[in-house]
């Protein structure tokens, strides 16, 4: 272990020696002589061959030569300490290398270098992360979750090579195909009404006429962790109303069969439109997303959604049916099923996630 640890240390030190050797070539020559011996010993150890040099003893002698003269009795315990320190250096180095490889593979396969807490990774796509909320309670759980992360990575690696077909996923959402041109491909657009990146993405899609270039199914998806906690306030309530409106269809008085559905209007309004917030002092203009996320209570949010039902042309009986359905177990099961498909089949670690042109795209839409 001593020669392996010495090789690791010398490899790191070599970065600085390379710079110093520009000014002091003798330092570089001395370093290179020692490094070659450590490399020779290291390669023999990792290939299970006997090291034919005394490099290990050289390292120990270098560290202990002064102790031998002044404190000879301390040589044996210090020698053991050197072996233990060498083992720790090697163990930490191996763990660091494995973690770096795991993070790199996760970033490539899943779009985030942190499998359980994607929000902790700054290298992934710009998206609202789906964190697991699972924290290890002890060392054994930590090790178990570490291997679980590897399982998720290997499970997602084939996604990088597959051709994505929207028909493989039975997601329930808003059918926006009536907005599309004829003879265009289908697409899936998974959005959380409370996610600011989703709002940016939706705006870019609108500007780029994404909904006319593809027959899109918009899946309203309230991000939640494994403990059932929703990431954004009132997001689940909005999704429940949107799904209920989509099942209800157009208002009975609507004559235009290709009119925008109230479910689509609601999603668009929450994501990119603004509304007034009245206080005793002043009236403010905020995005509806900000109002629902930060200012509306659950009661205020539901009252606003019910106002929109009336605005969109639904009569009293229709509104009552939509409201009752929105709070039903049926809609709850739809949300649960969508969640399972998005997280387990599509392996999404961030929202928005889109499937179009045979590929999966995570993060803000790019024109």
Structure description:
Strand 5 (274-278) and strand 6 (283-287) form a beta hairpin. Helix 6 packs across helix 9 (262-272) and helix 8 packs antiparallel against helix 9 (262-272). The chain is elongated, with a radius of gyration of 30 Å. It has 13 helices and nine strands. Helices cover 55% and strands 10% of the residues. The protein is α+β, with helices and mostly antiparallel strands. The chain folds into two domains: 1-108, no CATH class; 164-362, Glutaredoxin, CATH 3.40.30.10. Strands 2-4-3-8-9 form a five-stranded mixed β-sheet.
Briefly summarize what is shown.
The chain is α+β, with helices and mostly antiparallel strands and 367 residues long. The chain folds into two domains: 1-108, no CATH class; 164-362, Glutaredoxin, CATH 3.40.30.10. It has helices spanning 2-20, 25-46, 55-70, 75-110, 139-156, 196-207, 210-213, 235-248, 262-272, 288-295, 298-311, 316-326, 329-345; strands at 128-129, 174-175, 186-191, 215-220, 274-278, 283-287, 350-351, 353-356, 359-362.
């Amino acid at each position: 272990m001593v020669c392996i640890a010495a090789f690791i240390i010398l490899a790191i030190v070599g970065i600085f020696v390379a710079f110093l050797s520009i000014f002091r070539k003798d330092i570089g020559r001395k370093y290179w002589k020692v490094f070659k011996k450590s490399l020779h010993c290291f390669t023999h150890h990792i290939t299970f061959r006997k090291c034919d040099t005394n490099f290990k003893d050289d390292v120990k002698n270098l560290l202990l030569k002064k102790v031998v003269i002044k404190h000879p009795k301390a040589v044996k315990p210090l020698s053991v300490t050197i072996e233990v320190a060498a083992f720790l250096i090697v163990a930490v180095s191996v763990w660091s290398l494995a973690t770096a490889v795991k993070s790199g593979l996760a970033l490539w396969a899943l779009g985030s270098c942190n499998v359980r807490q994607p929000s902790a990774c700054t290298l992934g796509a710009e998206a609202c992360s789906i964190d697991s909320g699972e924290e290890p309670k002890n060392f054994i759980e930590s090790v178990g979750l570490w291997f679980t992360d590897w399982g998720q990575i290997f499970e997602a690696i084939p996604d990088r090579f597959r051709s994505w077909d929207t028909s493989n996923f039975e997601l329930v959402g808003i059918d926006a195909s009536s907005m599309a041109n004829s003879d265009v491909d289908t697409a899936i657009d998974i959005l959380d009404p409370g996610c600011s990146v989703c709002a940016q993405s939706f705006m870019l899609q609108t500007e780029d006429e994404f909904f006319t270039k593809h027959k899109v199914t918009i899946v309203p998806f309230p991000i939640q962790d494994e403990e059932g906690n929703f990431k954004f306030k009132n997001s689940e309530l909005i999704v429940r109303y949107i799904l209920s409106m989509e099942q209800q269809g157009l208002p009975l008085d609507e004559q235009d069969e290709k009119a925008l559905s109230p479910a689509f209007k609601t999603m668009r309004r929450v994501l990119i439109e603004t509304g007034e917030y009245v206080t005793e002092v002043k009236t403010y203009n905020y995005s509806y997303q900000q109002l629902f996320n930060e200012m509306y209570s659950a009661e205020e949010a539901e009252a606003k959604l019910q106002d929109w039902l009336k605005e969109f042309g639904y009569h009293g009986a229709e509104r009552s049916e939509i409201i009752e359905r929105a709070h039903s177990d049926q809609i709850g099961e739809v949300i649960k099923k969508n969640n399972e498909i998005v997280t387990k089949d599509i392996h999404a670690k961030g929202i928005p996630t889109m499937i179009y042109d045979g590929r999966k795209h995570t993060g803000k839409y790019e024109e």
